[in-house]
Design goal:
This protein has a six-stranded antiparallel sheet. The chain has helices at residues 2-12, 15-18, 49-70, 103-116; strands at 22-26, 30-35, 76-86, 94-99, 118-129, 132-144. Strand 5 and strand 6 form a beta hairpin. Residues 148-154 have low confidence and may be disordered. The chain is α+β, with helices and mostly antiparallel strands. The radius of gyration is 16 Å and the shape is globular. The longest helix has 22 residues, at 49-70. It has four helices and six strands, in the order ααββαββαββ.
Length: 154
């Protein structure tokens, strides 16, 4: 749920609280996080690029977290590599949305995770401000530590 994800992020990833991150939507298919300008402002009165990147990563991480929990998998999730593309300065409060994991990529990811205990998947987050696309993150996330058991239960 929205509240349980917010509580988890604020307790387990404390920078999310300091950045004012709120969970707008949290489903098996889509996560949207929102962040205000004030705690994420830079010297040019726009959102600091590191803050924008962090919120984008948190959105992608959160969707992967929700999906793995939905599959009854409790493993570690980390970012392996990422690339951020900024279209324009972020002038105010903004959102980061991660959605639409390709079903075949998801099945491959789960299969490798079950077989090897570690798997990588590409995720993307779109950032919006004032109803405009402002930036996009593409990243590879790795899940590990999940142990496969007979019958697929974890």
């Amino acid at each position: 749920t929205v509240e349980s994800l917010k509580k988890y992020l604020h307790e387990r990833i404390p920078i999310s609280r300091a950045m004012g991150v709120e969970v707008v939507e949290a489903t098996f298919d889509r996560v949207t996080l929102a962040a205000p300008l004030a705690p994420n402002i830079n010297h040019r009165d726009t959102v600091f690029g590191g803050s924008a990147s962090a919120v984008a990563m948190l959105a992608a991480w959160s969707l992967l977290h929700i999906r793995l929990r939905g599959e009854k998998i409790d493993g570690r999730i980390v970012i392996h590599k990422s690339a951020m593309r900024f279209e324009r300065p972020i002038l105010g409060n903004f959102t980061a949305t991660t959605a639409d994991i390709d079903p075949s990529a998801w099945r491959r990811f789960l299969s490798v995770l079950e077989q090897k205990g570690r798997a990588r998947i590409k995720m993307a987050s779109a950032l919006r401000c004032n109803d405009e696309n402002v930036a996009e993150l593409e990243g590879d996330f790795v899940a590990s530590g999940a142990q496969a058991t007979p019958g697929g239960a974890r």
